[in-house]
Design goal:
The protein has a single domain, classed as TIM Barrel (Alpha-Beta Barrel), CATH 3.20.20. The chain is of the alpha/beta class. 31% of the residues lie in helices and 16% in strands. The structure holds iron/sulfur cluster.
């Protein structure tokens, strides 16, 4: 585990800084960070393990058979996850996304889905419960997840061609298994289904048009993700990034596209519709069109650390507070303290810093947390 961990949140310091009454007030109620961004989305990683070794996330050379994955006792239990999630919901979180590693590797995940589904929200609206998966186990799990109360799934699929797929995920998994998972998720009603394709120049960018042709006219929304310098292991290079504008240009040449307005502010993907009305695609452009100014996402690692950015270098240890018997009010106050002090905008800074340390994977820069540890 790379990222430096800030010692247990020093509540005495918070109490001194925030006066006990303020702490109590912080137990519920909407939160905004230093850039006036509300806390609205929580991404929960339920495992740091995965059965794929995608080169942009969990390269095999680093995450090999000697890699020290977290022992089970270190993981938050479903009860602990649900308790922490309830505190975030009381602070205004409306959407929870389950991630990993590969979340479907966590046994009985549908039990956690059922526990989260039962959480009341301050607004009375149904919590939006979603999951991001590589799809390899989805065909088997879709019905149980749906029955437990999951709303939607997002499936990662970087190619339709088995050879290219293998080059991207570095394991011998057939594309057909993932496509069957998508079909089954659609059949049981886990839609609208989104498919995320990470585009890495020189590896799978030739698949942009075949993927667009395949999903055009289907209920699936295909989203293209710019290759990112997440974590400290994928050897990211700017010249392997295919800018979203280029993705649009390539598709538009054959399948005419028109830009459309976002569904809601803070939506990560820019939307484009096919001019003939047969569906839409999304572009997630963290490198060339950063969207930090609308980022409302917090991330909880599988061992209970709170991260305020995908590119963070340190987390805040909520599990320690849980396991040392702190009250909901105290833990909720700690969450409020962290979010209200948040000022992250890594992608915007990277964008501006074309020559400095962020530009080209500077080895002296602080080590960023691995995406496989906190979820994408
Ligand atoms: S770089 Fe960080 S702050 Fe910016 S959008 Fe991504 S997670 Fe949010």
């Amino acid at each position: 585990m790379s990222a430096k961990v800030i010692p247990v949140l020093d509540l005495r310091h918070i109490q001194r800084a925030a006066h006990v009454p303020a702490l109590a007030e912080a137990a519920t109620g909407l939160l905004s960070d230093t850039l006036a961004r509300p806390l609205r989305d929580l991404r929960i990683s339920v495992t740091d393990r995965c059965n794929f070794r995608c080169v942009y996330c969990m390269p095999k050379e680093v995450f090999d058979k000697n890699y020290a994955f977290l022992p089970h006792a270190a993981l938050l239990s479903f009860e602990e996850i649900t308790r922490i999630a309830s505190l975030f919901v009381a602070h205004g979180v409306e959407k929870i996304r389950l991630t990993g590693g590969e979340p479907l590797l966590r046994k009985n995940l549908e039990r956690l889905v059922g526990m989260l589904r039962a959480l009341p929200t301050p607004s009375g609206n149904e919590l939006d419960l979603t999951l991001t998966t590589n799809g390899s186990l989805l065909a088997r799990k879709a019905q149980a997840l749906k029955d437990a109360g999951l709303n939607r799934v997002t499936v990662s699929l970087d190619s339709l061609d088995d050879a290219t797929f293998k080059r991207m995920n570095d394991v011998d998994y057939p594309v057909s298994d993932v496509l069957r998972g998508i079909e089954e998720a659609h059949r049981v009603g886990l839609g609208p289904i989104k498919v995320n394709m990470v585009v890495k120049g020189g590896l799978n960018d030739q698949e942009i048009l075949p993927m667009a042709r395949h999903f055009k006219g289907s209920p699936v929304v295909l989203r293209f993700i710019e290759y990112m310098d997440v974590g400290a292991s994928n050897g990211w290079k700017m010249d392997e990034v295919i800018p979203s504008a280029e993705v649009v240009r390539r598709i538009d040449q054959e399948l005419a596209l028109v830009p459309v307005a976002p569904n809601y502010s803070g939506e990560t993907a820019a939307r484009w519709q096919y001019a003939d009305g047969s569906g839409e695609i999304g572009l997630i452009s963290s490198v060339t069109q950063a969207f930090c100014h609308e980022c409302t996402r917090a991330r909880l690692s599988t061992e209970g650390k709170l991260y305020t950015c995908l590119f963070a270098t340190h987390g805040h240890d909520l599990r320690a507070l849980l396991r040392e018997g702190r009250s909901d009010t105290e833990i909720s106050g700690a969450i409020a303290h962290v979010w209200e002090a948040r000022g992250d905008r890594y992608s915007e800074l990277r964008r501006a810093d074309t020559t400095g340390p962020l530009a080209e994977g500077d080895s002296t820069a602080p080590r960023k947390v691995e995406m496989s540890y906190i979820g994408g």
